[in-house]
Write a structure and sequence with these properties.
The chain contains eleven helices and no strands. It is an all-alpha fold. The radius of gyration is 20 Å and the shape is elongated.
């Protein structure tokens, strides 16, 4: 008999599938959210009143959108944008459907973290780059982002851990994953061993991600 079925009440194959679903949701939404978040963050930094491309209209609109989306709890956001999810991926339920709200949730969150990371860069570096004739793109790509790299990595690490928590709530639209397994087969069936097991798995995920993030952030700051 399956050891996991005997001890936890679910087969090992289901546990493995839940872990795969969680990793899939986290890393796909993290990749897309990181790209979008970086674009938004750079826009906020360069168009703010002290930026290199001052534009109060663009800054105000972008800043307002980020604040609005970040103020909406994930579970409400996920339900609210179900029509958009259906339009983009063709379904409102499942692991694929969860990617849309996860991206919309994490992109503004990362954007704010990235913005703070980039703003920490010494302004003297920007002035030196401009004095050498660097274009706006060159200032951003060759000076701002490389100087903020260590802090950006830690921001991504923080965002990844936040996504792990969000994937648990994504179970409301049948997204699966470790969190959904804990709720459906653990909490609802009063299966304490399974709940404890899934908590331990999530803690291990978080510890591994934080350790990797800290390692690469240290390396980036030393280079």
């Amino acid at each position: 008999m399956d050891f996991f079925m005997q001890e936890l009440g679910v087969p090992g194959s289901q546990l493995l599938l839940a872990a795969e679903q969680t990793l899939y949701m986290v890393f796909l939404s993290l990749f897309i959210g990181t790209v979008l978040g970086l674009i938004i963050a750079v826009t906020l930094v360069v168009t703010n009143p002290n930026g290199i491309v001052k534009n109060s209209i663009v800054y105000t609109i972008t800043n307002t959108i980020v604040n609005i989306v970040r103020s909406i709890p994930f579970i409400i956001l996920m339900v609210f944008i179900l029509p958009l999810t259906k339009m983009i991926v063709g379904t409102r339920v499942g692991t694929i459907a969860a990617i849309v709200p996860l991206v919309i949730f994490i992109a503004p969150y990362l954007a704010r973290l990235f913005e703070n990371s980039i703003l920490e860069v010494n302004k003297g570096i920007i002035e030196a780059a401009q004095s050498m004739g660097a274009s706006y793109f060159e200032v951003i790509w060759h000076f701002l982002l490389p100087e903020a790299k260590g802090s950006l990595i830690l921001s991504i690490t923080t965002g990844t851990i936040g996504l792990i928590g969000a994937t648990a709530m994504a179970g409301a639209i049948g997204a699966g994953g470790v969190g959904d397994l804990a709720l459906t087969y653990g909490y609802e069936r009063l299966n304490f061993p399974l709940m404890l097991f899934t908590v331990v798995i999530l803690i291990i995920f978080v510890q591994i991600i934080q350790t990797i993030g800290n390692y690469f952030a240290r390396r980036a700051r030393r280079s």
